[in-house]
Amino acid sequence: MKISVIGTGYVGTVSAACFADLGHEVICVDIDKSKIDRINAGIPPIYEEGLSELLKKYAGKRLHATSDYDFAIKNSEVSFLCVGTPPDPRGNIDLGIVKAAGAGIGRSLGTKKGYHVIVVKSTVVPGTTETVVLPAIEEHSGKHIGEFGIAMNPEFLREGKAVHDFMNPDKIVVGSMDKKSADLVASLYQGLKCDVIRTNLRTAEMIKYANNAFLATKISFANEIGNICKELGIDTYEVMKAIGRDFRIGPHFLNSGAGFGGSCFPKDVKALIGKARETGYEPELLNSVLEVNEKQPHRMVSLLKDKLGSIKGKKIAVLGLAFKNDTDDIRESRSIPVIKELLDNGANVSAYDPMANGNMKKIFNIKYYGSAIDALRGADACLVMTEWDEFRSLDKEFDVMEKKLVIDGRHMLTPGKDVEYVGLCW
């Protein structure tokens, strides 16, 4: 089938490449010429494991990129809306880009003959597809629902593992207003071993938010328990390993540590809180999830001060800048509030991340290094913030430190006996 994908961020680029791998012809649409040129050259605009290989394989064949809405819409049967939904200054979802994309699709759809389905894949609060996207398309196309179809198909992709997750889904959700549109969207995933959950538009939108809010809640719960265990001298990882064996709970997202970040969990929980407040309901549990997460990274600095006293003028090495391993994404990284607090206290910060140095340079003017050992050289302490595999084997590298104090925010290390090792929650 012929597909157009509006927006070439994480979701759009991965979806486009994976749909091409499933045998579809795909046209990517973006206003950023540099992204278009990179995709057409088979070079991913973002880092994702496995994405480069897919783009090299299909760019110029089953996959193309353009800035021309008209060309993309008229040469496809279904369009996926994959644009960003950033938070506004109050933390609520900003639907400006979604509305603009809907208008762009509508203008191109107005002169197209034949049935066309628009699929919202961007994460949007319940009611958005019906009350924002659909009216924008109808207004700018001059057509009405029925002359075209509309659906909601949320994504459940982990950054760093998005290609794998797309091709090996645990669920595919399709919300629609009519069976014809739902059938078409479901057919695009033929070949994947997964049932398609069919529902209405608002329910599909809510499934995405409820999914992420629950995972964020598990993390904050694990961190809350971890903080209590720390005070009681109990290994929280032993506790979580045991409760994770309960089939009602499961073992995933129970690793106590410095908290969650990224482009999804913080933004989505805040957006769901905002939507709940619009209805007059105050979501106390979700508020607490965010409160625990905001406090957690500051505990790293508190532990540091407990050990060193004043950190003014001290050299502190921060290992890990991306919000998680296997990505260069620093959005809502727990390293950001930690580095800010270190600088506010007069510390000299040296930093290293296998992939995210460049992105963090846009935020902080600190010293960045190309290896862990260089960042550690002469440091009075080290804070481990991201679960990069290469950090697990660190040992003799700590010998170059002025003082061998390591505070681990991710339960990563088993350093030698001559290292003073402090776990955040254990």
Helices, strands, pairings?
Elements: E1 2-6, H1 10-21, E2 25-29, H2 33-40, H3 51-58, E3 63-66, H4 69-74, E4 78-81, H5 96-109, E5 117-120, H6 128-141, E6 149-152, H7 162-167, E7 172-176, H8 179-187, E8 196-199, H9 201-232, H10 236-243, H11 265-278, H12 284-308, E9 315-319, H13 335-344, E10 348-352, H14 357-360, E11 367-368, H15 372-376, E12 381-384, H16 389-392, E13 405-408, E14 420-423
Parallel strand pairs: 1-2, 1-4, 2-3, 4-5, 5-6, 7-8, 9-10, 9-12, 10-11, 12-13, 13-14
Antiparallel strand pairs: 6-7
What does this structure look like?
With 426 residues, this protein is of the alpha/beta class. The chain folds into 2 domains: 2-199, Rossmann fold (3-Layer(aba) Sandwich); 231-426, 3-Layer(aba) Sandwich (Rossmann fold). It is 42% helix and 14% strand. It contains 16 helices and 14 strands. The strands form 2 sheets. The protein has an 8-stranded mixed β-sheet, sandwiched between helices. Helix 5 packs parallel to helix 6 (128-141). The termini are far apart. The model has no long low-confidence stretch (mean pLDDT 97).
